[in-house]
Amino acid sequence: MRHDEPAYQGRPLPRPHEEVVDQGLGFDLGTLFDRRRALRFLGIGAAGVALTACGAGSTGSSPTTTSSAASSPASAAGEIPDETAGPYPGDGSNGPDVLTQSGIVRGDIRTSFGESSGTAEGVPMTLELTIADLANGGATFTGVAVYVWHCTREGGYSMYSDGIENENFLRGVQIADGAGRVTFTSIFPACYDGRWPHIHFEVYPDQASITDSSNAIATSQVALPQDACEAVYQQPGYEDSVANLQKVSLSSDNVFGDDGGASQLATVTGDVGSGYTVSLAVRVDTRTTPSAGGGPGGAPPSR
């Protein structure tokens, strides 16, 4: 390189009469790799390099917000992935609609209500979801309505499965308190053939909006940890779950498999004697467009 040639960090510029930021992709990549080596020498990891690179390149307009967790700005902040509601939502989008029934707003969902009187048996479980509002800087999402539903210890869904079509247990709505928290008293769900053990939920702007499933601002699922599942499935009534759990994993599941349920895997405390508390932080971004609802997400056998 001649001494009079324009250069940047000792490297000749491919376009000597243009700005450094306009030297082309090849030159930019070389600069990035040189920066990565320098930062590694200083003890800064790859994440720091990525952030530095993104900051240096932010000269254009902001990317368009989409419903995809992989491409939306909220994904970096941990937005809960949109997931299918499955074939048994009970929200009016696929047959029965429990959300129009008086009594659906309740904390204990083990029993049916209205004209039904059945009770779901199983290992006790308390479900705690804490909803955060990413569109408001991650503040607690007070006042949103959260609809929760899951299968029985035998793997069936009320309102749909053989023998419990007239029941509506294991379904309920709670309104988020000042901490953005909703709490449900229930039983630990089964593992049915083809799916990792899970709990469904939908988030609505408020209680008045729950009667129309299209109002949901988030639809997702909670993944249950393997160690708790293995302990529960040794208990009476969960016999089929033992073999079913052995045939599936978080990485092979058709809902959680894309990332192993990274932001959907619950924290669980307790034991089979006193029951379990299942907790998950749910981050919702109303700036993205919900994309859930397509595909069954795995159906349990009819009973």
TrEMBL record:
Q: What is this protein called?
A: Intradiol ring-cleavage dioxygenase
Top-rank lineage group of the source organism: Bacteria
- Chain ranges of the Intradiol ring-cleavage dioxygenases domain: 116-193
Task: Provide the GO MF annotations for this entry.
Answer: dioxygenase activity
Cross-referenced InterPro entries:
Intradiol_dOase_C, Intradiol_dOase_core
Q: Which UniProt keywords apply?
A: Dioxygenase, Oxidoreductase
Q: Where is the composition biased (Low complexity)?
A: 55-78
Region (Disordered) residue spans: 55-101
